[in-house]
Specification:
Layout (H helix, E strand, L loop, with lengths): L11 E5 L2 H13 L4 E5 L3 H7 L4 E4 L7 H7 L2 E5 L2 H8 L11 E5 L5 E6 L6 H12 L2 E2 L4 H4 L15 E3 L2 H12 L4 E5 L22 E4 L12 E5 L6 H7 L3 E5 L2 H4 L1
Parallel strand pairs: 1-2, 1-4, 2-3, 4-5, 6-7, 9-10, 9-11, 11-12
Antiparallel strand pairs: 5-6, 8-12
Amino acid sequence: MTQHLPFPNNKVAVVSITRHGIALAGKVVAALPGATLFAPEKFHREAEAAAPGAFACFTGKTGDQIPALFAAFDGIICIVSLGAVVRLIAPHLKNKESDPGIVVLDEAGRYAIPVLSGHLGGANALAGVLAQTLGAQQVLTTASDARETLAVDLLGRELGWTFEASHDEIVRASAAVVNDEPVALVQETGSTDWWTRHANGRSGSLPANLHRFDRLEDIDPDAFGAVLWVSNRSLPDTLAERLSGKKVIYRPTAASVQ
């Protein structure tokens, strides 16, 4: 399955601080045309050889580069140890809605580990790309991906859908899905062919705790821990209060409805 990145390749930075890591970074940049390799100035020659015309070198501490990388890039691949990356990025974290997706790739290219913003930030998808292009094993720790169930904040993303929900509603609905509570999935419009392409791809059937409906008026909101509503209608006034705090509304694009 082709992975869908939520950002263009030119918004991807590949950071490496070792000679062998820079060689691997060159392969990553080749697999993601438009991405940029960042390396210490002392490895200028190696960086130029690995990613000609697609590299930038820095002087000083690697940690001093983090604010600029966060500001300029949506996806960051670090060929640096996991512990070092945690220490480097910790002072700069804000929230899952705005932090970039960050993936750690070991120097041998064997494991691609999403560290930050696996879903909204696209780190899981980025790890999937590395798995496809380098043969790395993606190490996914998000509950919905580990169990191959529905990821509430990714439903329809590959189709260009957007969602309307508060942070608390997303958290509540996500918890209901992964904890096997009854969840109503009401789809009134948009392509129904999304499950196998969902998130990093799903091979099994839709989980049993997800109950499908064709119309919002057909459900009893009190019977479900969360309600996922795919529609371009306005929320009916008669259901607004009963769905408060437990609904996520998805808006398919016009192209995906046709």
